[in-house]
Amino acid sequence: MLNNKKSPPNPKQSKILSPKNGLDNFRLGFGMTSKCTRIYIRTFGCQMNVRDSEFVSGLLIDNGFRLSGSIEEADVILFNSCSVRKHAEDRLFSNITYLKKLKKKRPGLIIGLMGCTAQAYKGEAITRSPVIDIVCGTGNEADLPRLIKYARRKKLRIIATDKVDAKRPELYPEYREHEFKALVSIGEGCDNFCSYCIVPYVRGRERSRDAKDIIREVKSLAGRGFKEITLLGQNVNSYKTGGDRDFIKLLGAVNKIDGIERIRFMTSHPKDAHTELFIAMRDLQKVCEHLHLPLQAGSDRILKLMNRKYTAKKYLKLVESYKKILPSGSITTDVIVGFPSETDSDFKRTCDIMKDIGFDSAYTFKYSLRLKTASSKLTDDVSAKTKAERLDIIMKIQRGISEGRNMKLVSKSVEALVEDVNKKDVTLMSGRTRTNKQVIFKGDKSLVGTLVDVEVQSVTPYSLKGRMV
Ligand code: SAH
Ligand code: SF4
Ligand code: F3S
Known about the structure:
By secondary structure, this protein is an alpha/beta fold. Helices cover 32% and strands 22% of the residues.
């Protein structure tokens, strides 16, 4: 959809972007790329967005743009946005509105909104924040170099949100943010429609990437010295390319790639995780012993209202099987408190199951009503105060459990992939265990990207501290 900048934007009167109205015929030709165009990208949300920002950065670099580390100096500012909770959206729009001043100083500045909020709001994003020049939906991101050129050259506002179900072209920009660990998308979208969740609406239907393309990408990463890869999807266990147990086959194929030392994956939905997956995790040497298995709630009544398609009993059985097959593996989860109609006794079930299982860590959230979702039709009747109290209780419980789980590692040796110099003390290094725990130990910068063994000496709920052995 195109809008003339001279008149105030009125998304409702705008045309929807399509090949017919010219934009798809707009190609980047000689003289159209500008090495001086500096792009600043700010990323909100989950790992998918982190990977998408990286993908878009690579694409822009390949098309002659330059990345800028400074928002003040950039010619184009892109916000890659998250809509999973209202708080995330509010923060985003207040950040964009803040740019009004910058735009007044530099009228040529282009501000673009990409990602899930762009897809959710479409043209309404400009109504909410008139400084926005480009709204680029999740399926339109491969077009961003063209959209930016078009907006700059024709001085037009653009809304491109028509490809939510599009399969991403296998463009493979080389650019990666890290030198030794990489995110690899294995699919897009989600068909689960958990009643509280906006993701299926903003990421479209589930589509799996071809295994041969994934393998080619990982082989190329291995050739460039990458050691750890994380296979990404909203629901990795439902990865499907026409056969049976396709995700396990994919893990097996990636496990054979020379040079890769660690394989991670996320996220697993309990309805699709199974014993064969845990056996594969045990038997495939490079696959790390960490499972992220969102529980969301412990009460069957709430789980049903959430459309999660499992009961607490089924979840417990699954975890029992995981622990039996991978006794030293770690398990983490996501939990929502204050879902509509959640009573004290529903909440107690969540607390009880968390104590029973003893997760290594948990992301805990207050329920946030999202438009369009099925649960938005239920009254959001748990008060803000009760939600805050329940969150506080659950976080306290989890802190104790996490510390207890970490205590079991004291005096043991763990393998760490060294990631970075500690921000507060440069004599300390920070790495991750195969079970995805942070380890801090004395060392120097030359260790970054290598695997070392560390003997654990003390712990907090969030990390292990030790010395290299
Ligand atoms: N596909 C992944 C990620 C979903 S979003 C998965 O299924 O795990 C990450 C987490 O955000 C979810 O697991 C859920 O705990 C939380 N979440 C999603 N929608 C929410 C909402 N409306 N309110 C509060 N938390 C929400
Ligand atoms: Fe959202 Fe559920 Fe899909 Fe996860 S599985 S993205 S929580 S709908
Ligand atoms: Fe991720 Fe947020 Fe979108 S959690 S999929 S960036 S809504």
